[in-house]
Write a structure and sequence with these properties.
The chain has about 450 residues and is of the alpha/beta class.
Length: about 450
């Protein structure tokens, strides 16, 4: 072996060691809770409810559910003048911007009246407000979850000591911005169109076209078209899910953090502080930030799946599409995921970089990504992100990781990751993070 290849082998060995360490590295993910709107009047309402409760949770977000998953549509007041419940998307009619705005405002009020934001804050600080077990005389907060999710040292997050050191103050502020302030709630309002409904419209259109054809051409051509439409219509028995997703973010800033730490936080039982926290009705809020609508146009046949599995697949994929779209539409909701490994060709040359994301996250051959590196200031403990390189997915190496893709034997479902090609920038190592589009928190 020549000296050149000895050095190459050594370098690759070091990269492999780095990859092994970095691939297992935890990274700071946004926290996400999910809820759905339940429509008791819907024929498939129960199936959609069951599908939502059973669907896989996203592995790109930390689970921040607080025990409430379903909002009964009949319990939502004052969206319209004369009825309860959200303005509902009907067959052949989508919601306009005014409808979306009214729905979003009604849901925001409902969430804040129910103190959901306070429950989210409590979860971050290790407090379980279970009405059956909670005791104000023994309850207290802790920083274990924040330490675990943010990879902080326990001493940096000692609230009683933090104000005495620059590093302590910075670490608490960093945890607030990076973790607590990146807490989201996604509410999915899922309605559906049965194939029979779609077919009924198609059949009507076919009959109209048939009548026009008869009038213009004479004879029975129009009748033949109408009959064909009826045959096609009657053969479909599936349904398509329509999902309006409303995204909310936990309102957390320096002022709110100061109120919490100064007035409420205690690592030892303090009934007075705990009672004050529970009684606070104005500080902790959720704010509406974005909306997305997804309509899956492809009808599935019941012959492929039973009714329950069909509902689960349709609902899961519909919500995943909305999450992917919201990531692009709302900066703070973007997903960061690590470079998993470096792909080499038989001659040992780098041919790409893999990551455990794919079609479920909305990746297409036209998607563009940045590679960023998390940098922690050793003096302050404050986190920044540095730009490293730019990537594009390789067209034939995009992982189809959508729900049930393997069962369907979809193209790309045999892969275990998506392979990316570098388009510009410097050296990329496993464990560095990739993020779609441009990330405003990145420094050059």
């Amino acid at each position: 072996m020549t000296q050149k290849y000895i050095f190459l082998a050594a370098a690759m060995s070091l990269i492999a060691v780095y990859a092994s360490a970095q691939a297992n590295m935890q990274y700071r993910r946004n926290a996400l809770a999910e809820m759905m709107i339940y429509h008791s009047e819907d024929q498939f309402g129960k199936e959609i409810y069951d599908a939502f409760m059973e669907k896989p949770k996203s592995d790109k977000y930390d689970d921040h559910n607080v025990g409430y998953f379903v909002i009964d549509n009949d319990s939502i007041p004052n969206v319209t003048k004369h009825s309860h419940g959200l303005i509902k998307a009907q067959m052949g009619k989508t919601l306009n911007s005014s409808d979306v705005k009214k729905n979003a405002a009604a849901l925001e009020k409902l969430l804040n009246d129910a103190d959901i934001a306070k429950l989210m804050v409590a979860k971050w600080f290790g407090l379980d407000i279970d009405p059956e077990t909670f005791d104000v005389n023994t309850a207290c907060f802790n920083m274990k979850l924040i330490q675990q999710r943010g990879q902080y040292n326990a001493s940096d997050l000692d609230v009683e000591m933090a104000e005495r050191t620059t590093r302590g103050v910075a670490a608490l502020a960093d945890a607030g911005e990076e973790l607590i302030g990146s807490t989201f709630l996604l509410i999915s309002d899922m309605t559906y169109v049965t194939a029979e409904e779609s077919a009924a419209i198609a059949k009507t259109v076919m009959n109209v076209l048939g009548g026009v054809a008869d009038a213009l051409l004479g004879g029975s051509m129009g009748k033949d078209i109408a009959d064909l439409g009826g045959d096609i219509a009657d053969s479909f028995t599936g349904f398509t899910v329509k999902t309006h997703s409303y995204l909310y973010q936990l309102d957390w800033n320096d002022s709110i953090a100061a109120i919490f730490y100064n007035n409420y936080y205690t690592s030892k039982p303090d009934p007075e502080k705990m009672t004050a926290f529970l009684s606070d009705e104005t500080t902790f809020r959720l704010k509406y930030v974005a909306h997305e609508y997804e309509y899956g146009g492809k009808t599935s046949l019941v012959g492929q799946y039973d009714r329950k599995e069909l509902a689960k697949m349709s609902c899961t994929r519909s919500i995943d599409k909305n999450i992917a779209a919201l990531q692009l539409a709302y900066e703070d909701f973007k997903v960061k995921t690590p470079v998993y490994e470096i792909a080499y060709d038989p001659k040992g040359r780098i041919e790409g970089y893999t990551a455990k994301i794919g079609m479920k996250e909305g990746i297409t051959p036209n998607s563009k990504f940045q590679v960023i590196q998390r940098v922690e200031n050793p003096e302050t403990g404050k986190t920044t992100y540095k730009y490293i390189a730019s990537l594009k997915p390789q067209k034939d190496k995009i992982w189809d990781n959508r729900y049930n893709a393997v069962t369907e034997k979809a193209k790309g479902s045999e892969l275990t990751a998506t392979t990316f090609k570098k388009t510009s920038g410097g050296e990329i190592l496993p464990g560095m993070l990739i993020i779609e589009g441009k990330y405003r928190k990145v420094t050059e």
